[in-house]
Design goal:
alpha+beta, elongated, lectin, Jelly Rolls, 15 strands, CRA_dom, 475 residues, six-stranded antiparallel beta sheet
Amino acid sequence: MKKLGSRKNDIDAAAIRANHPMPPQCGLFYFEVDVISKGKDGFIGIGFCSKSVPLNRLPGWEIDSWGYHGDDGHSFCCSGTGKPYGPTFTTGDTIGCCLNFRDGTAFYTKNGKHLGIAFRDLKGELYPSIGLRTQGESIEVNFGNRSFKYAIEHYMKEEKTRLWHAINAKPIPPISSPSTSVPISQAASETNLTATVHQLIMSYLVHHGYSETAKAFSTDAVQLIPGDSSEMEDVESENPSLDSDKDMINRQRIRDAVLKGEIDFAIKLTNTFYPSVLPSNGDILFQLRCRKFIEMMGLCAGRQITCSDDEDEEVVEVIKDHLMIEEDDDEEIEDKVDDDDVVIDEKKSSKRRKGVETGLNGLDGNIEAAMRFGQELQDDYRDDNREEIKKALEETFSLLAYTDPRKSVVSYLLDPSGREPVANALNSAILVSQGKPPIPPLEQVYRQSSVVLNELARNGVGSSAFVNLRKDCLV
């Protein structure tokens, strides 16, 4: 953005304000101004203001306006009286302005050098603002479309360190005993907090069926508080060396099967060890079946279906349409595909088959199995009018629209990461059937912390921008 100055008189001064305010959610807001020419006198003001401030004077000379001026190096805070702040600036200089929403301060930089805090106790919705007054003044503003001269990323890291230091310096509050709800003494709270953290970790390991890890953690990390063993009763009750060892192993086998894409095996194990789970959780069974179809299509990915006499597209349409037709329409499919024309061409072999009866005979074994299972899936949920079911089926069957779905816009469906939500949902259903919570306490703490951070950011609390739960706490 460029701006040119006018004449020398005060009444000829003018300012320009950005279209959008600086969002507190970013934590720090920084921009730089390149002085292309100081013009006749260099009466250039750089700063910020509220939306209601008149734009006929330099930044800092009005209420709710702050600025740093190049002709005298003074800072102006909501008045025409300035205070010595930094050096003057002129043609060729780059002046940066930064608002720190964590502590409500603002500072400037000159040619990449930090000049110190200029303003404090800043609040409200503020907009970047530049003012010029004399003839020939010319500037250009950089909001990040090119590299800054000042290392703002380094400053961001420093601010993040300061915030975490402040968080860690807070005294640990007393923790109430889960059995008596009586506050524990401050002297014992740190030890108690450690026990609580151990309990959270143990419950997480048990919840997800990590039996060997849980055993090792129980042996090496979990220690009871001397004189008050009640603080770790929950950990002891979930100790894998007790009743939950076999259950953890069974749930881990089921989880591993889903994560490997072996959906039929996962269903078989679930029905063997937990026979009531799938019949009473139809939505999870639906997720498993959709995932099974996706895994089957993954096995088919890359195989080419070709036909003689230029009927390639016709056969592909048969495969696409087959899942959406009624059984009475089979004759229509037979009319579309000639018995001797279907050829399956793979990388190392090709086969010609005869006797097309349903529009599927003659297809590669993996493709044929996927088509038949897909038709079964479609038939079973044809009359289910729930939007989430319709949407899931539409998304799942979209894999049929591409010769090689691995190279299509729906390739993400084949990604193994899609198995994890299904595995987690099944594991939670098993635990609920045993009267246990569907989500481990540690995950609840994480989710609640995420909600709190989002709410803080939504309400303009700048400090929230310096905390990233995934990067800071999980990695």
